[in-house]
Structure formats: C-alpha cells, structure tokens
Amino acid sequence: MAAQPRTNSKKERRQENEKLILAAAEKVFSEAGFGGATMQLIADMAGLPKANLHYYFPTKESLYRQVVENIFQFWLQAADVFDDADDPAEGIGAYIDAKMEISRRHPSGSKVWATEVMHRAPVIQDYLETTLMEWTEGRAAIINRWIAEGRMDPVDPDHLLYMLWATTQHYADFSHQIETLNGGKPLDDAQWEAAKASIKRIILKGIGVTE
Amino acid sequence: MAAQPRTNSKKERRQENEKLILAAAEKVFSEAGFGGATMQLIADMAGLPKANLHYYFPTKESLYRQVVENIFQFWLQAADVFDDADDPAEGIGAYIDAKMEISRRHPSGSKVWATEVMHRAPVIQDYLETTLMEWTEGRAAIINRWIAEGRMDPVDPDHLLYMLWATTQHYADFSHQIETLNGGKPLDDAQWEAAKASIKRIILKGIGVTE
DNA sequence: GTCTATAACCTGATAGAC
DNA sequence: GTCTATCAGGTTATAGAC
C-alpha cells in the first residue's frame, strides 16, 4: 500500500489519541458518572480498542483524574476577566459572561466537576484546599476593596461568589431540565443572550452597581 | 423470652423497614452515584441483610426510583409559600427561605436530584415534562402578574426561577466545596442566616422590590 | 418474613501475539 | 505501539432453608 501522508510524529500521534480519549471520557463520565461509565464505552466513542485506553491511561481512575484536572484548569481561566477590570460592573459582568460561555461550550466538563464535588471531591480535594481557596480569597479581597471604595453595596463576598458560580453553572449542570422546560429544545442564541442579560441585570442591580 | 412490646403491626414494620432502607439509599446514592452505590453498602447502612432489600425493592433501579420520586414530592412542597403570598417580596423571600431550609436539612436528596437531572433524567423524565413544567408555568404566570401590576421589574420569569433554584440548591449540592472554603467546617447557624440574608438582599433588590 | 449461599453476569485490567 | 483473548474480582439478583 502507498504510504499515506504521515505528517504525524509519534509524539503527535500520542497527543492526538490522548485528546480523543479525554474528550470521549469527559462525555461518558458526565452522562453516566464514574461508576456508570465503562472503559468499553469510552473506547467505542473514541474509536479505539479498549486495551489502548489502558496503554495511554493505566487505570480508569487515572483517566478520570486527568479529565477533572483539565476541567479545573479550564475553569480557572475564566477568572482572569475578574482581575483585568477594577470597576465592579465591568469585572463581575465580564465574569458572568465568561462563565456562561463555558457553560454553553463545555457542559460536560461542568457536570463532571459538579459530580466530583458532590461525591466529596475524592480526586481533587487538594485543589479545593489550595488553588481554589487562594483564588476565592483573592477575589473576595477585590470585592471588599470595591465595597470599601463605595462602588457597590456591602455584601458578603463569599455568598456573592457562590451565587455567581451557582447561577452560571446551573445552565450547564441542569441543561437537560432547562431544555425540557424549553419544549425539548436547547436554548438558542437569543435565549442564551437573554439568560446572560437577566443574570447580569438582577445581580448587578442587586449589589448596587447599576441603576 | 418475654415478648418485647410489639406495638408494631406487620404493616407498620414494613413501613419502618422501607423508611430505613430509603434513608440509607438516599445517602449512599448521593455520595457514590447510582453506579457507584452497591446494595451491600445500603444494606449495611440500614442494618439489614442485603437480601431483605430485594424483598422490599425488587431491583436496585426500583429502589433508586423511589428515592428520586420522594425527593421530588418533598421538593414541590416548598413551592406552596409561593402561592400563599401575593406580594413578590414576601412570596419570593419565603420561597428562598424554604428552599434554603431544604438544602440545609436534606442535602443528600438535593444531590440525588441533581445527579439524576445531569444524567438526562433516566427515571423522572416524565415528571419533568408534566408536573415540573406545569409548576413552572404557574409560577411564571404569578411573576408576570406581579410585573404587570408594577410591583417588580420586568424580568424574564424563567431565568429568575432558574436563579432561585441554582442559588439555593448550590448550598446543598456543593456543600462539600463550601465546607472546604469555610475552613473544613460546615456552615453554622449564623452563617446559614447570613447566606439567606445575602441571597434575599441581592435578588429582591435586583428585581426591584426592595430599596 | 428473614437470611445464607450461590448463580449469572459484567467490568477493569493484563498477557502475549503481531 | 496495537489489538485479541482471557483472567480475577466484584455486583445484582435469586434459590431455598428456617
């Protein structure tokens, strides 16, 4: 047989396969949970024999761990917009937009994250205690500074952050419920914009930065 | 042996055992998911031999179904406060209080519900399409009436309801994360009150019914 | 109605040929 | 590096004694 164009080195091929497996795993874990997911199902979805999964990821748990860690890294990047603005309306508004965009584009990842936390974070407890704790404290400090400067109402920063996380992630984690209540159809572009606008309107007014 | 006081009829005994099993099942399902939960673990937690579980509930799925249906019924009862008030501040405020109380008292149930919805509602899809849909439409109508009467800002009722669900249930579903960020301790009485007050303050002001 | 012992099945993981 | 065949362990569910 004529050799097909092999632009892929071994390293590139490995990265491609790992990416394929991780994408399939995220989907299956999000739909069936860790216990309900099977390596066979992930392999089928990735288009690879089951044994290959164990070649790239020695155990089911190591594969799951990689999925969760990737989600967490991705999740942190949305936080940058918080720091880039020193106006609460702009900072919190942009954070809502960023988190809603993640909920829309990566609902599976959000679901895996939610399940992991609900199961008492068996694999990412250390991240909660270090990275997430530090991130939360830093953002709370920013909010407290805005409050001290009289730019927003004196609300509890922690509970405000929980409200932001809860509200934005709800559109990913409960997407099936929202879809059902929407007549069985996913939210369209206009509905996603309306959702963002509603959330920003209520929260920004609620903390005294608009109107 | 002297007969111990048997105030229990067979029917009462059956109800007691079923209650015991259902409580254990809710806990185990919430902590391990459907796939991760085992009948053995539920039996141990209920203090019964595994075979007895299959006597009361023929299959693991039937037990799980009963758990989810119970949660849903319980969940609906919090909605009553919504109808009993015709003032939005009172109605929505009381609804937030009621849902927060459920999150505090029944975190396991909330987690099972969340997981069930995330897995595309394999056993309660019919409830979503009927009971929940009707409930949501009814409450949206009430909100729209309040808006028409000029008692609150013109916000989208659906997105407001999602925000209420998301925010209140977050304290149950993500209780482990909140606990970790709280220094490893569950929220105490004062912190729960602060959480309720924060949520009510932001949302009620955000929809234009206070201040 | 209750419980022990067992059956039937499925899953994660691996050995070993290619 | 890849894949088929297989093993070892654990799970649901049930048969059958009490």
UniProtKB/TrEMBL annotation, chains A, B:
DNA-binding feature ranges: 38-57
Residue intervals of the HTH tetR-type domain: 15-75
Tagged with keyword DNA-binding: yes
Entry keywords, A to Z: DNA-binding
Keyword DNA-binding: yes
PANTHER family documented for this protein: HTH-TYPE TRANSCRIPTIONAL REGULATOR RUTR
Protein name (record): TetR family transcriptional regulator C-terminal domain-containing protein
Annotated source species: Thalassovita aquimarina
